[in-house]
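Supplementary Methods S3. Complex input for the flavin mononucleotide-bound model.
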Amino acid sequence: MEFKQVLGNRRSIRYFEPDKPVEKEKIQTMLEAANRASRSGNIDYWKALVVYRDDLDAETLDALRVPTTTADLDLAPVQIYFFADCSYADPANFRKNLKELVTLGALNPSHGWSDAYVDENVVGQIITPMLSDPAVVGWMGTIETGLAISSAMLTAVDEGLGCCLHAVNMETAKQVFKYPDHWIPCWTLLVGYPAEDPLTGGQRPRRSISSLAFMNNLDTPFEEDPAVTEKLKAQGLIQNEIDADKRAAEVRQLARRFGLPE
Ligand SMILES: Cc1cc2nc3c(=O)[nH]c(=O)nc-3n(C[C@H](O)[C@H](O)[C@H](O)COP(=O)(O)O)c2cc1C
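Predicted complex, serialized as structure tokens:
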């Protein structure tokens, strides 16, 4: 699928084909995409735990439920728990990885980079003080895990899967999966083949970019060029918003099919 079409087609999917297996190959593809996301100092913050729903007992599955994650858990065949591993954010790892990037020509002498520059200017003056604040390490790690999640989600769409990020009961998750204390949980991605229209009847509402982005100063909204908007519509990035009535009919049908409340 064309990249802009993938971006435009992504929706939070909440009705999955519960018994249609998700190929491990597709999960691997999503994880490889996550692993290609950019990262400061080439640091491996993101971690993921892939869990196949049917490998959990019914009691555990139920205990993962929270008010925003209900039937989704029963329907999605795969859960991917994403974390930010803050232990990797160590000055020694930054030093090692940045020097590797210098050697490989990803960071260049033309811009001032050298092994000495990594030691003295970057790790010595910037990275080490930053990493001494756990709050800073936390935001660095969670942002980077977010980048990885985003790539995985778009890849799911490209692979014909549906997905949705979710909160789950992390007390249960901690007890069951015993992830280390220095891993910050960053949402759980439910994955499966959509049982609903993968385009959910249209895109979910978004406020215009001119209300969100600015040009040169914060008094000047970023003005959309209508010709560009039309081009993006033709390329599938911007799509029609949901028709609520049509969608309601589909949701009723799905609820009946799965024996869920209407
Ligand atoms: C970080 C994050 C957490 C979310 N948690 C939940 C959740 O717990 N339950 C849920 O039904 N949807 C959850 N969502 C999905 C959003 O509600 C959804 O993105 C929103 O309705 C917009 O729809 P779209 O993703 O189709 O554009 C979450 C989305 C994000 C990005």
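The chain has a mean pLDDT of 97. Residues 134-158 form the longest helix (25 residues).
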